[in-house]
Structure formats: C-alpha cells, structure tokens
Amino acid sequence: NKKAFVELLFWKSPATAWEMTKGYSSLQEGEGTTRSRVPPWTPQEERELQELYWKYKEVEGGDIIAAILAHLPTPGRTRKQVVKQLVRM
Q1: What GO CC annotations are associated with the protein (predicted)?
Q2: In a 10 Å sphere around its CB, with 0-12 CB exposed, 13-18 middle and 19+ buried, how is residue 4 labelled?
Q3: The model's pTM
C-alpha cells in the first residue's frame, strides 16, 4: 500500500493495525472489537439492573453504581458496563 504513510499519521486501534498489515477485510464480522468481548445483557439482567437502580437512586451521599455492583447477581460486570447499560436503558 503506497499510501500507508498517510494512514500512520492518525491513531489506530489494534484491529485497524491488523487490517493494515494483513489486508483490508481480513477480520471477520465482529472480530477485533470490544463488542465481541462484552457479553450482551439479557432481559433478566436488565430487569434486575433497573430494580437495583430504582432501589438505590434515592440514597443520599452514596455511590449508586457501587451499590448496584455490590448487589448485582451476575458477577463480572464492570462499572463502565453498568453505567453504559443504564444510560442506554
């Protein structure tokens, strides 16, 4: 690729760098993205998250997300995932 130097002027993700070296469209659909590593939220988990949010949102001076994470029955969810899901809902 004679114009690769132009692409190198801008920040690249690991997936994009892989495509540049191995050829474009070398990744299968969904590979190399964070979406494939994060398990999707099930409807049951969404209901539990919503119930916990409504339970802890009125607590004064407390960290709502920390309280939700402490009582979330599904282990392995990060603070960022919980916040992102709450915003999405």
Answers
A1: replication fork protection complex
A2: exposed
A3: 0.56
